[in-house]
Each structure stands twice: as structure tokens, then as C-alpha cells.
Amino acid sequence: MRELTYYVAVSLDGYIAGPNGEFDTFLATGDHMGPIWSRYRGTAPTQLAEAAGLSVADGPFDTVLMGRNTYAVGLPHLPDPYQHLRQLVFTSTPAHRPEGSDAVEFTSADPVATVRALKREEGRGIWLCGGGALAGTLIDEIDRLALKINPVVLGGGISLFGPAEYSPTAWKPTGTQAFESGVILAEYARV
């Protein structure tokens, strides 16, 4: 069965974006970039990865899930951001499609039911790339966490699991790697 991995950058105080949705304080350069890319190849928009000379082939995921706000970060320049992956965007307005987004699947379907169906399909892993509200909705379906903890405090914004209410969930650490840049890659599996 396929697994759902929530792989995301997060601040020390648990935010994946600032109060206005900004994430530019997260480190985009440093000694953490190469090793994390090796582990999570294919988790950058296709055009950006190719421009940087990074291969998107043979990554751990073949499907990416996003909330509408996470998807909108790349607009209008990247309406088909992860061309190398199956892309699902959860939105209340699936008929509203940006030009150039024909390969992106917009859906108002129940995220939990959708993920359960995806897990039964053949393939590689499923990547939840954001946002926090979607992660809160899917918390009981998340099998693995891969957190790129950045050495910054945002003081508010979009929480790792959004405003959703959920029960305490135990996680087992499966790996931790600290880098001189200050970034820590912390990986967990559901207990």
C-alpha cells in the first residue's frame, strides 16, 4: 500500500508560512540542499529543478497533493508546477482553472476518501506538500512526516496542521540530520 508523506518546511515555532502566507525566510541555499534533494528528489517544481540542473526522475513520489492556497503560490508563472507528478489540488471551486493548468486535477472531493483511494492504487509514494488546513484534515491518513525545520521563528501564520481539531497522535522518529545552515531534517513514522 502506498504511503502519504507530509514533506514540508517549517519554522521553529511550527509555521509553514508567515501571517501573510510568506515563506521567504526559509533557507533556499546551504549545505542542507544537496542531501535533502537526494532523499526527496522531485519535490521542486519541474521548471525550477531543470533550470537548476536537478533531475526530477526516480524520486520517492509520483503524486503530489496541495490545497488551493499552496497551489496558488506559483501563479501565474507555474500553473502546472509539478509536471513530472500527478497533481491534485483540493479546492471548493474546482471549475476555476488557471490557463495552462490542464494537467492539474482540481477537486472538491473529500480529501480523506481521495487519499484512501490513492493509497490503494499501484505506484510510489504520495506527497502532501501543503497547506496546513489540508494537513489537519488528513492527519489520520499521514503515514510519515518529513520536516525541514528552519532556524527561524515566524511568530504566527499558517500552522503545520492548520486550525483543525485532532486527537493526539504519536510518531516514532526514523531519522534526524542537522546541517551547518541550521536546518534540521526530522523524519517520523506513525506509531
* Superfamily (CATH H level) name: Dihydrofolate Reductase, subunit A
Question: Order of strands across the widest beta sheet?
Answer: 5-4-3-6-1-7-10-9
Low-confidence stretches: none
Oligomer: single chain
Q: Total domains, how many?
A: 1
Mean pLDDT: 95
- Described by the principal axes of the CA atoms, the overall outline is globular
* DSSP strand content: 25-35%
Tell me the major beta sheet: 8 strands, mixed
Strand segment count: 10
CATH architectural designation: 3-Layer(aba) Sandwich
Radius of gyration: 16 Å
The CATH topology is given as Dihydrofolate Reductase, subunit A
Distance between the termini: 17 Å
Helix content: 10-25%
Number of helical segments with 4 or more residues: 5
Q: Class in CATH? A: Alpha Beta
Q: Topology as H/E string?
A: EEHHEHEEHEHEEEE
What tags apply to this protein structure?
18% helix; alpha/beta; Dihydrofolate Reductase, subunit A; 191 residues; eight-stranded mixed β-sheet; two-stranded antiparallel ribbon; 10 strands
Structure report:
- It comes from Microbacterium nanhaiense.
- This is Dihydrofolate reductase.
- Pfam families: RibD_C (PF01872).
- This protein is an alpha/beta fold and 191 residues long.
- The protein has one domain: Dihydrofolate Reductase, subunit A.
- Helices cover 18% and strands 29% of the residues.
- The protein has helices spanning 33-39, 46-51, 68-72, 111-120, 132-138, and strands at residues 4-10, 15-17, 61-67, 86-90, 104-107, 125-130, 144-149, 158-159, 171-178, 184-190.
- The chain has an 8-stranded mixed beta sheet. A two-stranded antiparallel sheet has the order 2-8.
- The longest helix has 10 residues, at 111-120.
